[in-house]
């Protein structure tokens, strides 16, 4: 049975600062886009008009920031109602969120790790089920970067897989987060990757990060993707087949031509694996080998 994805190809996150620079980009260069709904809900004026032009031209997914699925506080139903309207208004193909929490009595402005416990699995899964029932569709939860593991009773991969199975939700596979966590928590990123349920992948993320120390990486989305992360994406395509993958870049944003080089690098890997499935073989250049426009 062929895996049905909500979008196809290589994507790019749309930021307000990119509205004008990306205005001439075609569907051949970028196959889908993503926004954080909290940054665009109820936005009017020139930015609202710009978003409408983009959502009429490109398939869109949304990646939430504030759902706080692991929070001890109740679900934010006002936010969810706004997200449901936003999805309808802009024909959004998929809603994804972080498997973390960012609020309690107030907003914490950071993504905090959920304790890897059976109790947390049950709690989070029930909240995801409520959200999916409300939206009338599956959502995708992202494997997140984290820097501490409080009250850990399970491994990260055991916790992630248990939540996905119990909630019967999809996975947003963030390749960079696997690499970052593998350095920070001393595990094999390839073994982690192979243990994921490929049938639940909705789409993927790839991004750059900051090397704080030899044994500490910080997930920043503020740098170019490094070759070991590209190699992990290559391994993901080899193991699961090609899935839609989006480049995240949140700050230190380079000129559009440079962003498009990395988006094209995703397509290079995707086309290569498509050819391999058809019996062809060809070497893949690294990002640094691709000629910048």
Task: Offer a quick outline of the entry.
This protein has 8 helices and 12 strands. The protein is α/β, with parallel strands linked by helices.
SSE run: EEHEHEEEHEHEHHEEEHEH
In angstroms, what separates the terminal alpha carbons? 39 Å
Largest sheet: 8 strands, parallel, barrel
Q: Kindly give the count of domains.
A: 1
The chain-level structural class is alpha/beta
What is the helix fraction of residues, given as a range?
A: 25-40%
Number of β-strand runs: 12
Description:
The termini are far apart. This protein has helices at 45-57, 77-89, 118-135, 156-167, 175-184, 189-194, 227-240, 256-277, and strands at 10-13, 32-35, 60-63, 95-98, 101-103, 107-112, 140-142, 170-174, 201-206, 210-213, 216-218, 245-247. The protein has a single domain (10-289), classed as Alpha-Beta Barrel (TIM Barrel). The chain is 37% helix and 17% strand. The chain is built from 8 helices and 12 strands. α3 runs parallel beside α4 and α7 packs parallel to α8. The strands form 3 sheets. An 8-stranded parallel beta barrel has the order 1-2-3-4-7-8-9-12. Strands 5-6 form a two-stranded antiparallel ribbon. The longest helix is centred in the C-terminal third of the chain and has 22 residues, at 256-277. β10 (210-213) and β11 form a beta hairpin. It is of the alpha/beta class and 293 residues long. Residues 103-109 and 281-293 have low confidence and may be disordered.
């Amino acid at each position: 049975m062929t895996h049905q994805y909500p979008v196809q190809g290589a994507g790019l996150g749309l930021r307000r600062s990119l509205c004008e620079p990306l205005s001439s980009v075609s569907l051949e260069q970028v196959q889908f886009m993503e926004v954080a709904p909290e940054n665009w809900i109820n936005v009017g004026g020139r930015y609202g008009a710009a978003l409408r032009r983009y959502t009429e031209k490109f398939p869109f997914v949304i990646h939430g920031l504030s759902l706080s699925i692991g929070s001890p506080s109740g679900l934010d139903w006002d936010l969810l109602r706004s997200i449901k309207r936003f999805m309808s208004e802009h024909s959004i193909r998929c809603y994804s969120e972080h498997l973390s929490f960012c609020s309690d009595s107030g907003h914490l402005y950071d993504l905090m790790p959920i304790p890897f416990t059976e109790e947390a699995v049950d709690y989070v899964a029930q909240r995801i089920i409520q959200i999916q029932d409300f939206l009338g569709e599956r959502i995708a939860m992202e494997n997140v970067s984290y820097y501490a593991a409080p009250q850990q009773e399970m491994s990260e991969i055991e916790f992630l897989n248990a939540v996905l199975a119990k909630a019967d939700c999809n996975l947003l596979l963030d390749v960079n987060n696997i690499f970052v966590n593998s350095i920070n928590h001393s595990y094999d990123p390839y073994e982690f990757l192979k243990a994921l349920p490929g049938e639940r992948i909705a789409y993927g993320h790839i991004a750059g990060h900051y090397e704080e120390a030899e044994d500490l990486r910080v997930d920043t989305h503020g740098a170019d993707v490094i070759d070991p992360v590209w190699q992990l994406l290559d391994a993901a395509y080899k193991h699961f087949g090609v899935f839609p993958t989006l480049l995240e870049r949140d700050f230190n944003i380079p000129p559009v031509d440079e962003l498009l080089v990395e988006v094209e690098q995703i397509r290079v890997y995707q086309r290569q694996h498509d050819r391999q499935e058809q019996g062809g073989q060809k070497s893949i250049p690294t990002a640094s080998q691709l000629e910048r426009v």
